[in-house]
Sequence to fold (387 residues):
Amino acid sequence: MTASTAHLSVEDIERIGAELEAIRDEVMSSLGQADANYIRRVIRTQRGCEIAGRVLLLGALFPPAFVLGTASLAVAKILENMEIGHNVLHGQWDWMRDPEIHSTTWEWDHVSTAAGWQQTHNYLHHTYTNVQGKDRDIGYNVLRVDPDQPWQPIHLIQPLTNMGLALIFEWGIGMFDLELDDVAEGRATWRDKMPEIKKMARKAGKQLAKDYVVFPALSGPSFVPAAVGALLANTIRNIWSHAVIFCGHFPVEVETFDEERLENETQAEWYVRQMLGSANIEGSALLHIMTGNLSHQIEHHVFPDMPSNRYSTIAPKVRDLCRRYGLPYHSGPMWKQYGGVLWKIARLSVPGGHETIEKRRRKALPVGRKAAATLRRLRDRAVPQAA
Fold:
């Protein structure tokens, strides 16, 4: 029970779960050739952008080729990580039974291994979303992004830490996936971690060789600018993915939960937790594709294995569901979401900053008499679609 759900009965929450299940069943039973064509088209586009970028960087000594090649390669890396890699590794396209587009065979353009990322992201994060002490993604062990996290002196520099993390986000996630904090806290030894460290080292070595040795070497006299172009493309991808992920998880209004919340949690309660612990980004169709449709973070957290191209069609239904049951549906343009996240990180860098965050969070929630009255008016009309 939180402030935003205090007006709901157990039956209300179960009805919310039933409606969401009906939405899921409708979408998953209708998947077909149009969806398969979509992901294959995105993959072709991504590979075309990568080829164009690599070819243009062969002539990186010429400024136009350098700029266009870097931009094309950056777009390719963003598409691969966001709309393709992330979603394929969630199993969103396993229903196609295509061995080339399957969660068990895809290895993405990232220093983090697919298997390591699936453990920390697919399992830990999506199972225990925003549960303090269980979801390691809350601050990634380096940032204070929630008032319930105890303040430490190191947090004074966290606005700078966050900037550095954005620049090297790929590497930060790779190291984070190793869960090396288990060693520091006595839950594992370096010997236990060594197999995963070696796997990541091999993967990272291949990534470094591809971007900064093999392809730049093909450019001959353009070796240095070609390598710089690849570095810039990776940096652009890192900053973009950092911004998208932070917008979906750390806005002021997004809620976190105590570990007790997990005790006897039903599927319907899990759905509600996912909606309260996520936020969306509003924008164009191009923005949605470039974010990997994580601009629909609420829908993704509720249905992580649903093909991403379907999130835009169910988002109005999920928003309406929240409206009818008096639940918050956090959504806004990217500038607002990211600006709010940066403000929150800065505010929580100092002692006492949590008080301002908590006041702003309470103010944003549809709680109290207004929410209860809204629910009373609409409850009779909130008939589960499964009925």
